[in-house]
User: Fold these one by one.
Assistant:
Number 1:
Amino acid sequence: MHLRQKIATATGAAVFAVALVGCTGQQTASSSSAETTSTTASTLVALGAVPTVPNDLAANSAHHSLQVPGESFTLTVDYYLTDYDATAWQTLQPKNVHLSVHLAPTSAESPEVLMGSFRGVTTLLAAMPGLDGLPIAETNDVPQAIPGYLINANYPYDNVLTIEGFSTPLADRWTLLAGAQPLTESGLAAAGVYANRMTFSYRILVKNNGDSGYHQRIVQDTVTVTQAPPPAAETPAASTAAATTG
């Protein structure tokens, strides 16, 4: 009986040892699965379809004619890039979009026209609600000592829309949505960013012959530039360096 008890005890211990190994294996697999799920969840991925939009600056310039209802003139605007290739457009790279606004009279009577103020805003276009429509750059020009800047056929209104790339609004929104995931071009592409849209607002002051003062017109225009594929060998370190140099 004593020998049988020893055999039973040894057998029970062996079974218990196997059970412990099995539990340990299950816990390890569960932990590994949890880590994989966590890593996947931290990668921001757009689930919606990404639309196709035209690149208005595909030739690095665009010429727009803007109607001003009720007036004897139109506005012609030239948008152009001087030191950046719009066909390789990357959201996180710094760039400047230049603009020149000309007055184009449509009758012999030419009123006095002033550029009362200008506002240019760059927003993201993305297949993700948290990023779509996010303003990432803004330029404002409001004259203080004068009502506006005189523009006519010979003297245009010129300005520059500066886009930093790594802007504070974009960095803050990315952190809110993606947590610790690095902000990179490939990350934005995975999140559904497919273009940048620039919206221009021109506040025009008009004084016709015989008028005692100016009346106001608001003219708006948009330029859309598609996002190029992200660099093949992009790293968080490279993105940080780009942010520093930008």
Number 2:
Amino acid sequence: MNIINGFIENVTVVPTTADTHMVTFILGREPCKAFNNLANMVEALQGQEVQAEGFWRPCRDDRELDVRSIRCSNAASGFVTIVE
């Protein structure tokens, strides 16, 4: 798995044909996507500093991080896992 840090920006809800909630967003400078509970959390944390863990997947002529967990920045103890 890969880990990246940054601020969540440019959150966009992507319509799907199934009952799956999906968002795309930018974390730092990297394009990312998240589904279901992670997608809800990304929307709630827009503008916040987080650490995301996931897998790089091909996307058009580039790549994007398929997010599997999110950790929120906590001044007292670094990053704390909030959704997996």
